[in-house]
């Protein structure tokens, strides 16, 4: 089943933009708003991790189905509605060309069909979605299934950039595609640098860093040379925050004026955090965020202090 067949809730990114938010209507600041960030539903990882077979395991994913259904229900109940719901990659666990990929994809699409049609979904590619070393073929499969792998969109005067971070990890088998994203990104950052937006925000799967720009290279971050290059590009353009997943734990830090936000997973936890979602409030001056467990968000909703921020003019 393609996303197009999965129902109208999926506003697939096409032509490097998201038609849920016509740019001509969204370039002006209209006051505070919020969105929901999730990451790593990764259907199949909980079973694979529990058996110690992360490469070829993952033949069960009912736990992830239930957790993602809970996440969708929690988001749907929020009032006022979030502007959008972004999933920062690793939508499923099965790598391109491996067993269970089709079934995991179909089950996730079925769950996501329940997202309120007034809450657009923004889908980010992760390493399990396009492969640790992506190819033109794996990128094309992702684009056909979920939409463009990188794109931008405007909401209320804020410019949002979605990146394919696997190009920053290892683009050795698709260098031309990486170069195309690089050229596109430079154009987008030029808009931000000219301060033609209230804020600029980046979504990608792999964090630039987990705590510090100078930390050692790790499976869960980008290499020092790449992260420094990207962080300098972002700060020069005035990007306020980068939101990511991949780590399956909450983490993050700052570099100059850039906030690096690493959110734990909807699905499998690799640390002491709970399955959850991040609420992100955007005001004229700043971006405030808080991670909620699925149970807390389901039962209590968003805290009064965050709600009060959205009432400011």
Sum up the structure in keywords:
about 325 residues; five-stranded mixed beta sheet; 12 helices; six-stranded mixed beta sheet; alpha/beta
Compile the SSE list and pairings:
Layout: H1 3-6, E1 13-14, E2 17-18, H2 23-26, E3 33-38, H3 45-51, H4 62-77, E4 85-88, H5 101-112, E5 121-124, H6 127-130, H7 136-146, E6 151-155, E7 158-162, H8 166-169, H9 175-193, E8 199-203, H10 224-237, E9 241-244, E10 251-255, E11 258-262, E12 276-282, E13 287-293, H11 294-300, H12 304-309
Keywords: Cytoplasm, Hydrolase, Metal-binding
Domain Calcineurin-like phosphoesterase: 73-249
Subcellular location: Cytoplasm
Per DSSP E runs of 2 or more residues, the count of β-strands stands at 13
Percent range of helical residues: 25-40%
Give the integer mean of the pLDDT values.
95
What is the chain-wise order of helices and strands? HEEHEHHEHEHHEEHHEHEEEEEHH
Q: Uncertain spans, ≥5 residues at pLDDT below 50? A: 1-8
SS content category: alpha/beta
Our estimate of the beta-strand percent is: 15-25%
Separation, N- and C-terminal Cα atoms: 44 Å
Helix tally equals 12
Radius of gyration: 18 Å
Strand numbers in spatial order across the main sheet: 6-7-8-9-11-10
Principal-axes geometry comes out as: globular
Describe the largest sheet. Answer: 6 strands, mixed
């Amino acid at each position: 089943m393609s996303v197009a067949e999965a129902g109208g809730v999926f506003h697939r990114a096409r032509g490097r933009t998201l038609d849920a938010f016509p740019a001509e209507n969204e370039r002006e600041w209209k006051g505070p708003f919020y969105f929901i960030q999730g990451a790593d539903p990764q259907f199949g990882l909980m079973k694979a991790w529990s058996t110690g077979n992360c490469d070829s395991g993952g033949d069960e994913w009912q736990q992830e189905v239930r957790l993602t259904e809970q996440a969708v229900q929690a988001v749907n109940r929020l009032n006022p509605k979030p502007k959008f719901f972004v999933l920062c990659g690793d939508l499923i666990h099965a790598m391109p060309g491996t067993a269970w990929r089709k079934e995991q994809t179909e089950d996730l699409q079925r769950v996501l069909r329940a997202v309120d049609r007034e809450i657009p979904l923004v889908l980010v590619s992760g390493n399990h979605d396009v492969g640790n070393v992506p190819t033109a073929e794996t990128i094309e499969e992702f684009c056909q299934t979920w939409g463009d792998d990188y794109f931008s969109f405007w909401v209320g005067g804020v410019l949002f950039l979605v990146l394919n971070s696997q190009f920053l990890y290892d683009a050795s088998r698709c260098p031309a595609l990486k170069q195309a994203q690089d050229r596109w990104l430079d154009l987008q950052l030029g808009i931000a640098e000219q301060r033609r937006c209230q804020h600029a925000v980046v979504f990608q799967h792999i964090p630039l860093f987990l705590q510090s720009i100078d930390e050692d290279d790790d499976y869960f971050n980008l290499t020092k040379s790449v992260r420094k290059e990207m962080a300098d590009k972002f700060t020069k353009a005035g990007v306020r925050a980068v939101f990511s997943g991949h780590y399956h734990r909450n983490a993050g830090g700052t570099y100059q004026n850039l906030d690096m936000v690493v959110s734990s997973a909807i699905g499998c936890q690799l640390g002491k955090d709970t399955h959850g979602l991040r609420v992100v409030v955007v005001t004229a001056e700043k971006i405030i965020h808080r991670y909620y467990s699925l149970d807390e968000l389901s039962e209590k909703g968003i805290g009064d202090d965050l709600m009060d921020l959205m009432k400011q003019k």
